[in-house]
Amino acid sequence: MTSPVRVRFCPSPTGSPHVGLVRTALFNWAFARHHGGQIVFRMEDTDRERSTQESYDAILELWRWLGLDWDEGIEVGGPHGPYRQSERGAVYRDVLARLRASSYTYDCFCTTEEVDARRKASGSKMQGYDGFCRDLTDEQRAAFEAEGRSPVVRFRMPDGSITWHDLVRGDITFETENVPDYALSRANGDPLYTLVNPVDDALMQITHVLRGEDLLSSTPRQLALFEALVELGIAEQVPAYGHLPYVMGQGNKKLSKRDPEAHALAYREQGFLPEGLLNYLALLGWSIAGDRDVFSMAEMVEAFDIADVNPNPARFDLKKAEAINASQMRLLPLDEVTHRVLPFLKEAGVVGDPVSDADAQLLELAMPLVAERINKLTEAATMLDFLFVDEADFARHEEIDEAGRDVVKAAHDALSAVETWSTAAIDEALRAALIDGLGLKPRVAFGPVRIAVTGRKVSPPLFESMELLGRDRSLARLHDAMSG
RNA sequence: GCCCCCGUCGUCUAGCGGCCUAGGACGUCGCCCUCUCACGGCGGUAACGCCGGUUCAAAUCCGGUCGGGGGUACCA
Predict the structure, then answer these.
(1) Which of A34, A60, A69, A245 has the greatest count of CB atoms below 10 A from its CB?
(2) Burial A408-424 (b: 16+ CB within 10 A, else e)
């Protein structure tokens, strides 16, 4: 009988949330949901210097936007709280005391400088702690204490080797002689990540730890600690580990927080859909099938198998992310696209907030023209502003040359005679006057007209746009453009 | 230095011994559609790092090598 799956999100609220963090969360989420398991959300804010409320809030906002829900933890509570490590000091002190009373750890009085000096003197190639304080006598301890030194609590790595079956990489073995004893707490008593992360996983009964590749080499330490926690009755079981590949930026470097592409919330601002971002991120290390890369999260949950995750580092490709986002956009019903576009139109000042009834109606008519041709929600604003702008504020963003002005005049004259202002009638009148009458190529004919009416070279379909704009405004803009 | 991870088109990947003269997607190039853009359609480009071994048969298994990455903290 296997125990129910329990995974965790455990971000540190330092800085703007990174797409790699989101990818890790997504895989945890998909894994848990696939297995009908639970997700615990805990905030690892032990680093007082770097943790900020802004970052904390940004992470929660991001998770909600993406729809990565959780069952226990931050904001929802649960039986293993509190879920902010900054509020769990008593828990760590207690565990540390029990560890310290056992032989799994020892007090270490060395300073970093002393360890370095010894290594230099001995010519040793080992980089970590040298085990100097492993077997201190009571007298030696007393002597150090008499000097006013306070110890860090150091974990005593066992002899032999440590092997685990990594969920994404298979069996991995470390000889513990290559894994130096490590500190669990600072000399001032503050617990370190090396302690709090495994301890919380233990107390929160996490069964599967899916995390970044950067933590792979600390796994032997955590496994050894976990064995001790199990022995001491603090942990029930040792979780399974899986190490997810890096998300890289340009070149061969990990996508760093300094890269603009790294900031997950920036994608929302750019007009990405959560469906699009998630779908793209899922592709970084996983695929649903050999001939398919657009899918819903429900489909991902259904198909996700951690063993299928590719261990190779993946480069973040903005172009492909946008293409996937565009595909997801096309999957949405029109009124949903409208709904999602609206905040961006308000933000850009294209429509008011709240939207007037007239604008809402116009938008409903205009959206069919733009929904199919935008890849990101932000693009709707530049495509639609000509329709909503006050006439006095209408501006042409492109030049119309001399020849173009003649075309515009011909268009104006032809359109003035149109009886019913409809797309078909406009189409007919313009073609008769410009293509047949002036013998122009369509491209040459409609380009200047488009600029006159919409202000841009790129716009929704011209005739439909003019119908929506209305006869008076269309003719007025054409007239205005005739004189340059 | 030592330890660990990784190695298929430019990029993300499919492939888990024969279906591979290696498939899809993004990108890119050409063409078609076309009032712009976008969509859509068609076609092209382009990869198993290298060397050995196992096998009737290897992108797939093993070893080595080269290359890339990470770790080696009283950071997380």
Answers:
(1) A245
(2) bbbbbebbeebeebeee
pTM: 0.94
A1 has pLDDT over 50: no
Report which residue type is found at A347: E
Element (H, E) at A145: helix A138-146
Distance A448 CA to B20 C1' (A): 53
**Mean model confidence pLDDT for chain A:** 93
β-bridge mates for residue A212, sequence order: A244
State the average pLDDT over residues A25-41.
97
* Residue A435 amino acid letter: I
CB of A15 nearer than 7 A to strand B: no
Cα–Cα dist A42/A30, whole Å: 18
- Taking the CA of residue A63 and the C1' sugar atom of nucleotide B69, their distance in angstroms comes to 29
Strand, coil or helix: what is A49?
coil
Residue A394 tokens read as 């209408």
Q: How far is CA A131 from the centre of its chain?
A: 41
Q: For strand B, which residues in window 97-156 of chain A come within 7 Å by CB?
A: 110-112, 125-129, 152
Model pLDDT, residue A385: 94
